[in-house]
Amino acid sequence: MTKSESCFSEEIFPLLCSTLSELYDEIIKFSGFKNDYCYNLPTINSNFHVDISSYGVKFFDTFSTNMFIHDFQLSSLSFKDKYECICNSSTVIETIKGEEDEIFNRIFVKIEDCPKWCQPLLYETRKIELQEEEQEKMKQQQQKQKKQKRLALKRKGL
Questions:
Q1: What phi and psi, each to the nearest 5 degrees, are found at residue 154?
Q2: What is the mean pLDDT of residues 23-29?
Q3: How far apart, in whole angstroms, are the C-alpha atoms of residue 91 and residue 106?
Q4: Nearest-CA neighbor of 114 among 15, 24, 36, 26?
Q5: Per-residue pLDDT tens for 55-102?
Q6: pLDDT of residue 8
Q7: Taking every pair of C-alpha atoms in the chain, what is the biggest distance, in angstroms?
Q8: Least crowded by CB within 10 Å, which of 3, 21, 40, 153?
Q9: At 2, is the pLDDT very low, low, confident or very high (cuts 50, 70, 90)?
Q10: DSSP letters for the chain
Q11: Is the CB of residue 97 less than 8 Å from the CB of residue 144?
């Protein structure tokens, strides 16, 4: 227990108590964020491997014989607003520049391989994506059916 040295603490604490409790309940959900990480995860659709930790996400090649030095690495760090690309080819770096979001969106890792703290959010995100894909499929099918009906009506009219 902590004791305050402020003469206003007995007046302020009751006012902040419920807010502090709500904040604590919210932050406790992310308690695994700092300590739960996964390194060297294989990707589903490429030859890259992925590291996921509180520092960010990075994917890298697995061709190097040294597991700590990679010929290619693209990182999205949690404490920076920009991507970092490490590569021995300026052509590759220039090609990737500006396309980092698209590249990250196309590299897939199994959700069950990811750190436990982010799995519920990833499952919910994937559920929404699947629903959107299903809606798009239904929309395309409806358009196709309308087109077929119009063609059938045109043929009858001929």
A1: -65, -40
A2: 83
A3: 21
A4: 36
A5: 899 999 887 777 677 889 999 998 888 999 999 889 999 999 999 999
A6: 66
A7: 93
A8: 3
A9: low
A10: ------TTHHHHHHHHHHHHHHHHHHHHTTTTTTT--EEEEEPSSSS-EEEEETTEEEEE-S--SSTT--SEEEEEETT-SSEEEEES-HHHHHHHTT-HHHHHHH----GGGS-GGGHHHHHHHHHHHHHHHHHHHHHHHHHHHHHHHHHHHHHHH-
A11: no
Tokens of 80: 């920076």
In one-letter notation, the amino acid at residue 96 is I
Distance CA(115)–CA(63), nearest Å, equals 25
Which residue do the tokens 């520092």 mark?
A: 55
